[in-house]
Amino acid sequence: MYKPDKERARLLWITLQDVWASLYGSKFPTAAAINGHAPAGGCLLATSCEYRVMLPKFSIGLNEPMLGIVQPIFCMFNFVNVLPRRLAERSLNQGKIFNTEEALQIGLVDDVANSKEEALTKCAEFIGSFDKINPSARSQSKLQFRAADLQQFEKERGKDLETFVSFINSPKMQEELGVYLENLGKKAAK
Amino acid sequence: MYKPDKERARLLWITLQDVWASLYGSKFPTAAAINGHAPAGGCLLATSCEYRVMLPKFSIGLNEPMLGIVQPIFCMFNFVNVLPRRLAERSLNQGKIFNTEEALQIGLVDDVANSKEEALTKCAEFIGSFDKINPSARSQSKLQFRAADLQQFEKERGKDLETFVSFINSPKMQEELGVYLENLGKKAAK
Amino acid sequence: MYKPDKERARLLWITLQDVWASLYGSKFPTAAAINGHAPAGGCLLATSCEYRVMLPKFSIGLNEPMLGIVQPIFCMFNFVNVLPRRLAERSLNQGKIFNTEEALQIGLVDDVANSKEEALTKCAEFIGSFDKINPSARSQSKLQFRAADLQQFEKERGKDLETFVSFINSPKMQEELGVYLENLGKKAAK
User: Fold this and answer.
1) Which of B64, B70, B159, B179 has the most A C-beta neighbours within 10 Å, making it the best mutation to test the interface with A?
2) How far, in whole angstroms, is CA B92 from its chain's centroid?
3) Which end of chain A is flanked by fewer CB atoms within 10 Å, N or C?
4) By three-state DSSP, how is residue B60 classified?
5) ipTM of this complex
């Protein structure tokens, strides 16, 4: 996002939109094993799923406003679907990052596992909870639940893209991103 | 629903739709005393009400997907109105059945009573909590809260009916229902 | 509201509507320090904010139905945004008043403070939690979250005004308000 090729930045965002729509609207059961830090995109993918299990001592959240990026509308859909509304709005506005314990306590993740293997086992168990459920009835139930969000997204995805493109092309934002990256570099060098 | 007369099956579903719309949209205070197992229709009626009290050692849930039936849209409205969204979607997708304790813990029922009499007393107390409330202001408050659901239902009830009718007339579904009923019979014979 | 000048009553309601829309839709971070009883209007202002801290031994709630007043649609938006839906609807229908402890427990307020100074400090801390957040990204995130409510309000504010005006001009309601005020006077005289 820093000094990007304009067409590539546009394509990045369209791809992100497509990934979200495919994952959030997938007719298959979906589960996320989170075995690393999951800010922004990582949190978005995880909260698009129906179930989340996370390893200790990692962090998760939608921190876009920290970087000056407006929370895309699909971030809002994910958080409203997972958290109580009061927490959803506040976390989005604050760009808040939670550690594993906090995430479990507020329901941002459903369970904690002590290893990647245990996390994958728990995900498989969640997927397995649908073994005796008719797959067509299951997927229609899920898509009915998410239909309003997916419809609103389709209506607003053009506007969402232009918001991102105009952000990415703003000199002020590029300057702020530069400072942010420089600080990251200094941190890494310590 | 097994090998039904087609017109009768259609009438059954229209009647169910009407019952839901009347109960969910009733201007009167509504409370459910649950003194038996409440899968599917029983749970639907109970969650259409404003308050639920349940006797121990019974079960409740919307298990339609178990039988291959798509969760009707009004099932979704009821669960979103009663449960946190995360639990609402997952329970609908899983066709999950809860016992009394679990139902109380997640808020699917508001209280537990040890006898039918005690359950009815608690329901009467809930209804009595409106004694000093202006009935017209009360019912307008309730209907305002449920208006969006009722409007969406009216828009989609035709589609919902066709989904059910096409399900009920599918040879595959009839076969699965046959197996399900046969197994129920074997269980009962034991 | 008792025996009002008709134009003044209409203006009162329009002003209340404007205040709500400005506060609920403010692009700035908002926090409420509640250091007194907060029924009806007080609760409306507090729940329009993003954060609430309350002093002990006070009461809060939207008790409009107690006086025969229909809960305005913006009261519903505020409660749905702050409370679980099941509690939101029930509290609105009952016109329920909570004490400080109850309000904290259900999430109607976020914290309790023992003095006005402490409450203001906590509010300042909440506002301060946005210090490192880009203000434009923050306000767009908030307004995106509240957009649907604000749009529905604009569509229905005319109807909401007429509901209030017709209520205020009804002889029955004026009589009930008279009895209510007389009882308040007797209580005060004791």
Assistant:
1) B70
2) 11
3) C
4) strand
5) 0.91
